[in-house]
Amino acid sequence: MKKNGLTLKIFGLLVLNDVGDSIAQLLMKKGLVQTGVASIDFGNIVEFTLKNASSPLLWAGILICLLNFFLWISILYRIELSVAMPVGSTAYIFTPLLAMFFLREHISLIRWAGIIFIILGIHFVSQSTKSEPEAAGS
Amino acid sequence: MIKIIFIVLISEIFTSAGHIFFKKSTNELEVKSVRGINGHVSFMKDILGKRDIWIGLLFMGMGLMVWLGALNEGDLSLVFPIGSIQYVITLFAAKLFLGEKIDKMKAIGTLFVVLGIILISMT
Q: How far is residue B67's CA from residue B7's CA, in Å, rounded to a whole number?
C-alpha cells in the first residue's frame, strides 16, 4: 500500500487525535469523580453503571473517543502505523499534564520516569514495523 | 494496585480484540485515495460496510466500559499509563491471530513498556 510521509497536515491530525484522547480521558475521569462511587465491586457494579449513565461529562468523553476513533482510522489509512505510533504516544504526556492541572493530581518523579519508559518502548515497537512494512496479515 | 491492574488488563484484552478485528477489516479494504468530503464519505461507507469493523467496535465498547471501572479506581495519571499494557497484549494477539512476527525491536520495546508500568505501579 502506498502511503504518504508525515506531512504537516497529518502531523496536525495526529496531535489533534492525541489532545482529543487526553481531553476525553480527563472528561471521563471528571465525570466519574463527580458521580462519586468510591470503589467498585460485585455488589455495587449496577449502582456504578446506573449512576454514571446520567453523567454528561462522561458521555462527552465517550463521544470524543468515538470521533477520535474515526480520525485515527483515517490517519492510519494515510500513513504507516510505524510513523503514526510514536507521534501518537504523546497522549502519555498530555494526559498526566491535564491530570496535574485540572484534577490536581500529584505526579512523582518515578511516575514520570515510568511514562518515559513507556514512550521509549512504543518508539522501539514502532521502529520494528518500519523494516517490514505490511509484511504480515495481508 | 493489583485490582487496578487486573481491571485494566480485562479492559485492554477487549480493546486488543477490537484492534485485531479493525486490522482484519482494513486488510480487506480496497485501496483508493481519500480526498475531499466525497472521498471521506465513501471511505466511511466502505469501512462501515465491513462486518469485522462492527465486531471490533463491539469489543472496543466493552473495553471502554471496563476502562471506566478502572478509571474510577485510581488517579488518571496512574491508570492511563497502565493502559499501555495494551501494547503487550496486542503484540501477542497479533502473533496468535494475524500471524505477525515478534522481532527483537518489538521485544525490546515491549520490555520497556512493561518496565514503565512496573515503575508507575510503584508510586
A: 7
